[in-house]
Amino acid sequence: MMAIFFTKYFVGFAAARELPLIKEVIFIVSISTLYGMFSGVFLSRSFIMFKASKVSA
Fold this sequence. Notes:
This protein is mainly alpha-helical. Helix content is 82%, strand content 0%. It is elongated and about 55 Å long.
């Protein structure tokens, strides 16, 4: 969760300061990849917890 916070904080900081970095394609792709990885981690953890609840019930 801290990684998500720091990533969102940095993106917000860069956007507020109007850094030219935010218009670079590599930055956009890397940030999108990070957000996708974070979503995948949470989705996989929810599947694991769902599976564990079925086994113990």
